[in-house]
């Protein structure tokens, strides 16, 4: 994996300023809406290129979307760091970008994405309050770091904020909370929100059997939460660590690395599944589809509900600054398709949520809705997206309901102000 420094505003100034780019893009959007020829005449000739991760760039989704929309769609899945690097450097290489909200700052500052017209998102009114206000319930905690609502709306001066506007930096769609998975053949099941803890990732009993996601805006926070829980590090704001705090964190983590505590650092969901399947690890950072896949293989992995709170993530679908004309029209159709019902039901079966869940509810069975969204017991076995039974009759979803899980976020995937420094320290750490 390359470790090239991600571009920021000062590296893009020679081409255009963010303010002038936004103003020109918004102006072009208004003019283009009146000048664009009817899209239906060229539908079959359009190809939409989607750059993202294996989380959403799945073949079943691509085939269904092409069938429903009537134009060609190409998926290019990569690891999260590689995806972000390519998108920030080469906006002409993709039409839509799918990853997580922590990538927004990098993409926005590099000029790689353009504002999305809110008026062209057909079901905008259905999107729930999580990304619009930051909370699903009044008592929910916002979570530290890049909470998506803070960076959603594009202002007239080119800045991103929570203040509602007519343009958004990303389409809110797939989201979830992450933690770690552990194999109950090796580790006794804990109690959600009570005994399950991020500190388990640094428990010496599991030395040599621990895996971590190789992403400095994700895995860094998993280990920071673990170190903080053990008192090995403290942070005034875990979503905005200082250089001194980062130094102390990696000083502690390096000692674990030298002792052989970590078995590997995975870069994709399939790789995380292989880590656990092969017995390389008994506990590791995990995403929900990986846990679902392992359970479908009868490997008893629990997706923990840490007492310190989850690490939250929100999927972002972004429009390339280089995409115009018919391709741009098709890109909007694809964005709207994601909120049309079927995609939300499909990804629910791998443990993910959609921003307008009620529209997908009718495509889920009563037991699927009860289990995945309400956190209630399923009366029948449930199958994952691969067709295998991933949930047995009588089980409840770890962590409870959608509202409860998304109300217990410790920190969001985040690009901190000290991002470049944390990137350097991360790669030094995994190279030890």
Summarize the structure in words.
The protein has helices spanning 9-12, 18-35, 59-69, 80-89, 104-110, 129-133, 219-229, 243-258, 269-277, 288-296, 325-338, 342-348, 358-361, 366-372, 402-406, 419-430, and strands at 47-52, 72-77, 96-100, 113-114, 116-117, 153-154, 160-161, 167-168, 171-183, 210-213, 262-266, 283-286, 301-303, 310-320, 382-383, 389-391, 409-412. The chain is globular, with a radius of gyration of 21 Å. By secondary structure, it is α/β, with parallel strands linked by helices. The model is unreliable at 1-38 (pLDDT under 50). Helices cover 34% and strands 18% of the residues.
Throw out a few tags for this protein:
432 residues, alpha/beta, eleven-stranded mixed β-sheet, four-stranded antiparallel β-sheet, 16 helices, disordered N terminus
Uncertain parts: 1-38
Instruction: Count all strands and give the number.
Output: 17
Strand fraction: 15-25%
Tally of helical runs: 16
Based on secondary structure, the structural category is alpha/beta
Helix content: 25-40%
Main beta sheet strand tally, sense and closure: 11 strands, mixed
Radius of gyration: 21 Å
Mean pLDDT: 90
Shape call? globular
Query: How many angstroms does the end-to-end distance come to?
Result: 15 Å
In short:
This protein has 432 residues and is an alpha/beta fold. It contains 16 helices and 17 strands.
Which helices and strands occur, and which strands form pairs?
Layout: H1 9-12, H2 18-35, E1 47-52, H3 59-69, E2 72-77, H4 80-89, E3 96-100, H5 104-110, E4 113-114, E5 116-117, H6 129-133, E6 153-154, E7 160-161, E8 167-168, E9 171-183, E10 210-213, H7 219-229, H8 243-258, E11 262-266, H9 269-277, E12 283-286, H10 288-296, E13 301-303, E14 310-320, H11 325-338, H12 342-348, H13 358-361, H14 366-372, E15 382-383, E16 389-391, H15 402-406, E17 409-412, H16 419-430
Parallel strand pairs: 1-2, 1-3, 10-11, 10-12, 14-17
Antiparallel strand pairs: 3-14, 4-14, 5-8, 6-7, 6-8, 9-12, 9-13, 9-14, 15-16
Helix pairs in contact: 8-16, 9-10
């Amino acid at each position: 994996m390359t470790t090239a420094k991600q571009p920021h505003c000062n590296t893009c100034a020679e081409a255009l300023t963010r303010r002038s780019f936004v103003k020109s893009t918004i102006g072009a959007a208004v003019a283009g809406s009146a000048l664009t020829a009817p899209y239906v005449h060229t539908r079959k000739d359009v190809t939409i290129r989607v750059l993202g991760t294996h989380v959403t760039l799945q073949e079943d989704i691509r085939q269904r979307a092409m069938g429903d929309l009537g134009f060609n769609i190409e998926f290019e899945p990569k690891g999260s760091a590689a995806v972000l690097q390519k998108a920030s450097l080469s906006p002409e290489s993709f039409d839509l970008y799918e990853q997580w909200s922590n990538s927004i700052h990098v993409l926005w500052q590099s000029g790689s994405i353009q504002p999305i017209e809110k008026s062209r998102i057909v079901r905008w009114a259905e999107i729930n309050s999580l990304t619009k206000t930051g909370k699903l319930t009044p008592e929910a905690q916002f979570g530290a770091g890049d909470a998506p609502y803070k960076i959603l709306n594009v202002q007239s001066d080119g800045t991103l904020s929570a203040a509602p506007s007519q343009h958004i930096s990303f389409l809110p769609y797939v989201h979830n909370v992450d933690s770690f998975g552990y194999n109950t053949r090796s580790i006794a099941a804990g109690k959600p929100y009570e005994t399950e803890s991020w500190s388990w990732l640094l428990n010496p009993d599991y030395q040599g059997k621990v895996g971590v996601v190789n992403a400095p805006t994700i895995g860094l926070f998993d280990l920071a939460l673990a170190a903080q829980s053990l008192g090995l590090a403290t942070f005034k704001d875990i979503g905005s660590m200082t250089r001194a705090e980062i130094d102390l964190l990696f000083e502690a983590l390096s000692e674990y690395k030298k002792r052989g505590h970590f078995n590997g650092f995975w870069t994709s969901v399939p790789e995380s599944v292989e880590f656990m399947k092969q017995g390389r690890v008994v506990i590791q950072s995990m995403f929900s589809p990986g846990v679902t896949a392992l359970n479908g293989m009868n490997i008893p992995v629990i997706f923990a509900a840490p007492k310190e709170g989850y690490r939250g993530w929100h999927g972002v679908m972004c429009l390339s600054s280089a995409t115009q004309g018919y391709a741009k029209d098709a890109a909007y159709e694809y964005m709207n398709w994601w909120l049309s019902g079927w995609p939300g039901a499909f990804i629910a079966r791998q443990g993910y949520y959609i921003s307008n869940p009620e529209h997908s509810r009718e495509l889920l069975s009563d037991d699927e809705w009860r289990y995945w969204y309400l956190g209630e017991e399923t009366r029948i076995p449930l199958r994952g997206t691969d067709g295998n039974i991933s949930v047995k009759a009588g089980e409840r979803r770890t962590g409870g309901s959608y509202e409860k899980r998304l109300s217990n976020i410790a920190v969001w995937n985040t690009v901190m102000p000290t991002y470049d420094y944390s990137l350097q320290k991360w790669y030094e750490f995994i190279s030890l």
